[in-house]
Fold each of these.
Amino acid sequence: METVLEIAPGVSLWRERLDRAAQRALLGEVLAQAAFYKPVMPGSGKPFSVEEFNFGPLGWYSDKSGYRYTSTDPRTAEAWPPIPPALIDLWKATTNHPAPPECCLVNLYRAGARMGLHQDRDEQAIDAPVLSVSLGDEALFRIGGTTRKGPTRSVKLGSGDVLTFGGPARLAFHGIDRVLSGTSTLVPGGGRINLTLRRVTA
């Protein structure tokens, strides 16, 4: 029987929800289609430390003009690839949300990459939780409340771990403090891949 850890109200963690074979299969599907790029910050154009790609009807994109969801890859004008079926099944099994996810944002963390505290607030469907899948190196995930200066807690996420946050935690500030390089050999060249599934439209 699966053990679900309640990290905080609205935040649930399944340790090694994906076994090694499932991790390899999912990673292979992702790497076969993902053309990673480095997004830049709105206004300043400063590049992120992570590389990104999207699957699904909508993709999250950031450039000098702002944050937004797009139905096509702005670099190629082509539709983003469909979300891998294994992730759709995982969404159904863990979120209990009646509507399917519309975006799977893929973040690739190489050595030194991190993600500062932020809210996922570009979506209309804040009634739907966010689902996160970790592959590769361990990472220190930080999550707090709905104000930037509120208390936070840190949780180590390993390869195959699945985390959801919704309800009172849907707009919680969260981020990746650092990736623990060399803790996994799953990702070619090292690093961590995080897959974040979201429902965008109401």
Note: The radius of gyration is 16 Å.
Amino acid sequence: MTDIYEQIIDRLVAEGGVVMLVGAPDTGKSTLAKLIMTAGLEKGLAVSYVDADIAQTTVGPPTCIGLRRLSTVADLDDLASSDDLRFVGSIDPERLRLQQVIGTASLVEAARNDSALIVIDTTGSVSGVVGQTLKYHKVELCRPDSVVALQRGAEMEPIVGLLRRFFSVQVDTVPVHPGVVASSPGERASARAEQFANALSGEQQKWRVKPTVFAPTLPTGLDLARLDGMLVGVHDRGGRCLGLGVLEYDADALRVVTAVGEGMAGLRLGSLRLDQVTHQTSGVNLREVMFGLE
């Protein structure tokens, strides 16, 4: 097993370019990503990590795709801080697929300017129409040089076959390392709550916001109280996501609570409410919130 990993890592680092990792949850994608990046950095390569796993993030907070540029092996000890973010607004990889694909592709494109090796970590959504469609379009827009599929049994064969039929990209399959330990849903939820807490820590300020600063645009006459507790992405005038915020409605005023309010130009609505005490989330139907639609 070790030889298989060593051989593929050596080849990926020698070839450079963009490497996309795909696999179900708990297959060791993040671990393999770190091994590839370590090998690349030890070879003196400029490395970038695009973390597109919006539910179990390594770079940046959940609900976001994060980019981290690395120049030394020591940089791997601080992957949580991001150099750039794209707000998706969900922790469910089967929702908001357009935002996931475009966000991932735009960060890969940004990394191409200064990185010899780019590693993309993806979500664990790999089965059925949704999983296959999501990975198809990520490959289509990110244009990786290599795809590595981590699988137990033959679970990745439908996606592997799909990618080999429609793209000229090199696709390799490797078995899941026996040392990979699966996390329970409760453990994942606890880890995510801690990440939200970290993302919303620091000096929080409350900024009064107008209904005109949102994307998507709020419908005329919307009861702003319906936005209370909604998670938002805080953006500057360049379209860059600065971080997360939470909306509060109180005394007929709508405010955003955030530590990244300086430079704020607009707010992107997600599909989650976040409890600022427990940092647990609950999904919402944004169309229902805004228009009363099911």
Note: The chain is about 30% helix and 25% strand.
Amino acid sequence: MPVVKKILLVDDHLLLVQALQSSLAIAMPDYEFLSSDSLSQAQTLLKQDPTISLAIFDFYMPASEGIATYKTLIEDHSSISIALMSGRATKKEILDCLNIGISGFIVKNISIKDMAVAVKKMVEGGMYLPAKLFDQPVSGTATLSSGVRLTNRERDTLILIIDGLTNKQIARHLGVSEVTIKMYASRLLTKYNAKNRVDLSNKSRDDLLFTTKT
């Protein structure tokens, strides 16, 4: 019998979190969803149930100390993926959260269908980020033979991923932060519909030989 993936949803608005739990349970019948409307109860559940695969917290939970609280959660529960959700977090706040090792950040106006995609991606070890992190115009784009469009920096990152470098090594090589490289890597996985770095390398390796500037 396959192991059922268990997801914990945490939001201080009880009706909202229960409605989200019900909607996701319908959209993802192969997953089990739990809900909590308090930070302390959620922390207790995480300690008592080691089978929880992913916990998604409202970023502005009462009694939390912001990023410091979620940093502690990540450190205390290294085997569990921790994600955050909010309807008003700034880009800086999201980037700061990425820096502590969250598995994803979900905006609250997301559809159930898209949230199901996000949940699945994070449970499988990937990272999910809101599109608004990537919606700023970037100069120097290139269209590849597959039709995928990459910025120059994305292309540089992709080449180094194919070479087997880690995010930390790529960041040092390109002179940017590791958080920035995590964003590029996540964007590349999405653009190539790749499951992981190996899949990304396989799908994009030939692409890099045929680059046309636009």
Note: The first helix runs from residue 14 to 27.
